[in-house]
Every structure is written in C-alpha cells, then in structure tokens.
C-alpha cells in the first residue's frame, strides 16, 4: 500500500481507467485574473485620460491594449467558470477545452486591436501630426510600467516554471529489502521532494500497483524512473517484461521528470500573462519615446514609429500560446508525452503480438488521454495483460484518462494500413 510519509491513511488501489478528477473552478487562476482585471480597468481609465491630455498616439495605443486585456480577462474568467462544469451526456468529455477557446479569443482580440492601431499610426505619419505633450506622456508611461509589472508579478506568482523543474532518483532500498520479509509487499524508495496526494483521506493509486507507507514519496515534478529491482519491489508479481520496460524507459535510474508530470499553468492565466508582458514592452517603448520627445521635440515622429515596432513585438508574443491552443484543438500529442515510449511499453508485454490504434491526445493543455488496441496471442491471458498494460503505462505517465482494448491477433493486421504505426 502507498501513502506519503507521516500519513497513515489507508491507501486504496484503483484498477480502472482514470485518475482522481480535479473538478470545479480553478480558484487560484480565477483569483489571479480578478486582481489583474481590477488593476487593468483602473489604469486603463487613467491612460485614456493621459492619452487625451498628451495627444499621444502611443499612449492611446497602450490604453487600447489595456482595454483589450480587460476584455480578454473577462473572457478568461468565463472560460475558467465553464471549464469547471461537470460533464453531461452531450458534452461527455466535459468543458475543459473552454479555456483553450477563451485563450484563442483573447489572442484574436489583441491581433485585431493591434491592426487598428497600426492603421492609426500610418494615418498620423501621412498627415504629419506629431504634436504631443511629452511631460504627461512620460508620467503616464512610467505609471503604466509600474502597474503592468505589478499585474505580471501577481499572475506569475505560484505557478510551475516552464517544462522542467524537477528530477527524481530511484534506488533499491536495503531497508525495503529487510521489510520484505515482514510484509508481502516491500517498499520502493524515491529520492525526491514530495507532493501531497490528490485525494484525501483515502489515497487512490491507478494501475493496480501499490506501495508501502513510510518510505514512499511522490516527486515534485514528473514521475520517478524505476530500476528493474525497484519495479519488482513495488509488486513481486509484476511481469518480468514490464519490469524490464520500466528500467529501459528510464535509463540510468535518473529521470528528469518535469516534462512528464508537470503541473501546467492554466492556459487563460498564461494568456493573460503574455498580454501583460506585451503591455510592459509597449509601455517601456512609450516611456523611451516620451523621453526622446521631451528632450528633442523635433523627433516627435518616434510616437507613431513606436506603435509600429511594439505592435510587431506584441504579435510575436502571442504566437506561442496560439500554437499550444491549436495543438489541443487538433488533438495533438503534447511535447512532454513520448508516443514511441508508450508504444514500446505496450509492445514489450508478454502475450501482446501487436499494438495498433494508439492515440495520445490533449483534452486540455494539462489533461492527456490515451487509447490503444492490444492484439494478443491465442493462449494469452487477457485479464493479466490488461492489468500489466494499465500498471506499466501509469507508472511512467500520469494520464488523465485511458482506454485499452484487448482483441485477438490476426495475420491480416500486419498488412492493415489502419493498424500501422503513424509516421513521426
């Protein structure tokens, strides 16, 4: 059985297809967006006033950008709320992709407003109207930098950083070996910082493989790599082939697991953060332009020029979030999941003749589903193979949902186009 150190609750094994769901509204993401929305609205009004008083198109650009941010924050808050709704018979997968749609709407909005501002800057260049109040422009842009930094800090605070961020070491513990004489199942010791289990007070584990308490820990990011010995310590009845696969898929007993089991940032918070980064860049540009105009009034043309330059920068800052959103909508395999490795795990199970229709796709940016067909030999035990496949894949990856179909192997599968492994 498994539990975290210093905890004595009974750990219940889960043999079926999904892990504990994190239903409900993402409270942390909602709180971040509400704070950012209030700051954005207050200073947007201040920038509109400053832009009118200074006659600066660059300040107006920044104010319009804040208006876009505020609207996108509202879209994101709605998306977070609707994503927390339970699934229905019509929406059987739930509403998780609402946050992706909200993020895309936010990005599209900033592209539209950026195009409008570029058009206004072109009109100012043609007319030659560059008269601005540099002093008001300086004060307003300086305050804009401060407010955007505050918004960025509160949005950034508390989430995992990037794709990396954690690694674990697996060791066959001598203490575990000694305890094996006393208990039917011994301990696998993982040298990594621990995180709490998802469910309480009863701990559930997917895959049908259980751990003893006291010595076992969950890594902070990713899953531990399992040596051959540790895989057998986890469950003495674990198939030899599975134990070998677990060792092979994590060479050197050293696994940098930040990409595999990372806690992804809520996509709408990430989109909001990218908006704010664009605002900071633009506000710095406006501040520099205001300084140039203040000391050298004859160079007032930098006001519309700044609009061009920083509009391009803002567009580029949105490409990454749009790329990730499109990957989810196209049901692609996330970068931190390894298709070939999952395929190898299934192929090495004794009795499995062929693996086909292996599908790994993202329900949302941090919820990944898997389905596969395992074609087995005539004398193979379907129940044992299903248990082994479920255990092996969940030991290596933290899939949100899995569906594994067992079927009889036929020679026709070798020449079937639909049963072939897809290209990279």
From TrEMBL:
Chain ranges of the Cation efflux protein transmembrane domain: 33-330
Span of domain Cation efflux protein cytoplasmic: 337-409
Pfam families named among the record's database cross-references: Cation_efflux (PF01545), ZT_dimer (PF16916)
Membrane topology: Multi-pass membrane protein
Transmembrane region(s): 33-53, 65-84, 96-122, 134-153, 272-296, 308-329
Compositionally skewed regions (Basic residues) per UniProt: 168-187
Biological processes, Gene Ontology terms: response to zinc ion
Record keywords, A-Z: Ion transport, Membrane, Transmembrane, Transmembrane helix, Transport, Zinc, Zinc transport
A GO MF label: zinc ion transmembrane transporter activity
Compartment annotation: Membrane
GO cellular component: plasma membrane
SUPFAM superfamilies: Cation efflux protein cytoplasmic domain-like, Cation efflux protein transmembrane domain-like
Signal peptide extent: none
Region called Disordered, residue ranges: 160-200
Family: Belongs to the cation diffusion facilitator (CDF) transporter (TC 2.A.4) family. SLC30A subfamily.
Protein name: Uncharacterized protein, isoform B
Taxonomic lineage of the native organism: Eukaryota, Metazoa, Ecdysozoa, Arthropoda, Hexapoda
């Amino acid at each position: 059985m498994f539990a975290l150190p210093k905890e004595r609750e009974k750990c219940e094994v889960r043999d079926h297809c999904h892990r504990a769901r994190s239903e409900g509204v993402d409270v942390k993401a909602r709180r971040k967006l509400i704070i950012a929305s209030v700051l954005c609205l207050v200073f947007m009004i201040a920038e509109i006033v400053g832009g009118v008083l200074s006659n600066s198109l660059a300040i107006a650009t920044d104010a319009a950008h804040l208006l876009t941010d505020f609207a996108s924050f509202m879209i994101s808050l709605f998306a977070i709320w609707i994503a927390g709704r339970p699934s229905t018979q019509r929406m059987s997968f739930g509403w998780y992709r609402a946050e992706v749609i909200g993020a895309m709407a936010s990005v599209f909005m900033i592209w539209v407003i950026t195009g409008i501002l570029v058009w206004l800057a072109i009109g100012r260049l043609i007319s030659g109207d560059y008269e601005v109040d540099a002093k008001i422009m300086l004060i307003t842009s300086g305050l804009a930098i401060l407010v955007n930094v505050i918004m960025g800090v509160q949005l950034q605070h508390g989430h995992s950083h990037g794709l990396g961020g954690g690694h674990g070491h697996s060791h066959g513990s001598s203490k575990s070996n000694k305890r094996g004489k006393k208990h039917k199942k011994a301990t696998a010791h993982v040298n990594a910082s621990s995180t709490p289990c998802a469910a309480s007070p009863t701990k559930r584990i997917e895959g049908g493989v259980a751990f003893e308490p006291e010595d076992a820990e969950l890594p902070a990011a990713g899953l531990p790599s399992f040596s051959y010995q540790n895989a057998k310590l986890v469950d003495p009845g674990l198939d030899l082939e599975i134990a070998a696969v677990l060792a092979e898929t994590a060479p050197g007993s050293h696994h940098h697991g930040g990409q595999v089991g990372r806690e992804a940032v809520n996509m709408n918070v990430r989109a909001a953060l990218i908006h704010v980064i664009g605002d900071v860049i633009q506000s710095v540009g406006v501040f520099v332009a205001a300084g140039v105009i203040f000391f050298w009034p004859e160079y007032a043309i930098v006001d519309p020029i700044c609009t061009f330059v920083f509009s391009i920068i803002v567009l580029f800052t949105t490409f990454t979030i749009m790329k990730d959103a499109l990957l989810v909508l196209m049901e692609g395999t996330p970068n931190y999941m390894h298709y070939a490795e999952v395929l190898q795990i299934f192929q090495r199970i004794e009795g499995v003749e062929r693996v086909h229709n292996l599908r790994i796709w993202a329900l949302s940016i941090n919820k990944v589903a898997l389905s596969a067909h395992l074609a087995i030999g005539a004398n193979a035990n379907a129940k044992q193979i299903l248990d082994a496949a479920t255990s092996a894949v969940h030991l290596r990856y933290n899939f949100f949902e899995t569906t594994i179909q067992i079927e009889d192997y036929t020679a026709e599968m070798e020449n079937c186009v639909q049963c072939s492994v897809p290209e990279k």
